[in-house]
Each structure stands twice: as structure tokens, then as C-alpha cells.
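Reference record
================
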Amino acid sequence: GPDFGYVHKEPLFEARASLDSFGNVEVSPPVSVAGKEYPLGRILIGSSFPASAGRRMTGLVRDFLYAQRVQAPVELYSDWLAVGNVNEFVTFVPTSDKKRFRMLLASPAACYRLFREKQKEGQGEATMFKGKGTAWYSGTDTKRVTINKVLANDVLAQQNQYVQRCIDWNRDILKKELGLLEEDIIDLPALFKLDKQGKAVPYFPNTVTMMVLAKDLGIPKPFGPVAGGECCLERRIRALLEPLGLCCRFLEDVASYHGSLGEVRCGTNVQRRPFAFKWWHCTP
């Protein structure tokens, strides 16, 4: 159609992997870093841990992205995840204040804090995964997963401490490369478990992989512990995001996407309104 084009890149000699998926190509909002302006934000891509032999994005695609100097890429560590995409632990939402946005990070630490709060309030027997039958990864009977059982699971706790260290590594990189302060970051409760290969998969639907439609957020429904007639994860997420003028809409995607290691964002696309200015005239 008019004013539309695309680039086709196909590696001839490299095997393609899930890090080549475009959930592994994100872009930040416009930022200013150490006096340098990035009016179109910066590209974020996931890779293996520095100096390791893990999975990386195909060289052809990676080189193409690095050639886009206007949005100079930031390389993050995502190989700790089974799928390995950056959108599994980071996203951005708009705000109307001076900063104009907040960065959201998946946070096992925030989830454990929330669950301990609920346990102290006497809600430790609140049940997760209501109406979901058998757990989609572990094969355990989800009718018996309570806050008390999650907090008593030492193996799960150790796995999530490892995951939190991986996310904290990326947190430090993002703060430096995007010029962010702690007040620009919101930690959303999340839990992961490790598969047989030692890679992380979400323990419940991963709310960070939301669709951002201006101020409307399409968030995977987490099916967290129901206390007082409401999912405590949904309540906490609303408390974090609604004061920013955002509207949280929780979408059930367990059978359609989550069971295949994805979320609703993996099977949908959003038609965005293009910039008013000619972005291709920007110079590095």
C-alpha cells in the first residue's frame, strides 16, 4: 500500500531461535542519557550473559538493528528465560507527568512481599488458579496451590531468587542506558519456575507482557490468590498503575496462549498512529 514498506532479512547459514522473535525487539520511549537525546527511544534486544556461549539473536538481524544508530540498541540478558524474549520482563507505560512514562519490570521479590503480607493478614489459605483445573506446567493440582504452600516451597523460592538476580542485572543496565532513576521503575509481582533445562517459565500468567493501548492496558489475567473476593495480584497491579491514569483490563489467555509459553501479546498486533514528523530524517 501507499507509504508502507518492509525489509526482509533471511540468514543463510545460521539456525534461527526464539531470540529472533520480535518479542525480543522492544523500543523504549524517548529518553535523554548523559546529555544525548534519543527522540525515538532506544532498541532493546535480549541476548546471552556476557562472555557465555548461550543463545543470541541471529547475527544478520542483530547487525541490522545495530545499524539503526538513531535508536542505538541496548543489549540485555534474556537467555535465562525458556523463550528468551525481553518483553517477558520489561515493558513501558505512558504517564501524563514530566517523565512521560514508567518502566515496568517483572519482580519475584514484589510477589513474595505481597504473599507474605497476605499471610500475615490471615489469608494464607487463599487459593491460586481458581477454575483452571490442572496446572499448565507442573502437572500439579492447582486447587491446592495456596499462599502458604507457595511460601513454604523452598525450591521455588531459590529459583525465584536466581530469576530476581537476572532481572536485577538488567535493571542496572536499563537504568544506566536509558537514564532512569528508581522512581521511574515499577515492580510488578511475578513468579517463575525453572524447566528441565534450567530456563525460566512463568508460574502464573505474566502480567508484564501486557498490550499497551494508550492508557488502556490489556493485561494477562494472573489467576492469583483470591482473598476478599478479589485476586490479590490484580488488586496490587491496579494500585500501582491506576494512580498514573491507566486503565487495567485483565484478559484470560491461559488456554489460548499461556499454555504454549506465550501471552495474549504474542498472538496480537496493534496498529499504531505514526509520528507527525518525518522520523526517517532524524540523524544519530
About this structure: The CA atoms of residues 130 and 143 lie 7 Å apart. The chain has a mean pLDDT of 88. The first strand starts at residue 25 and ends at 27.
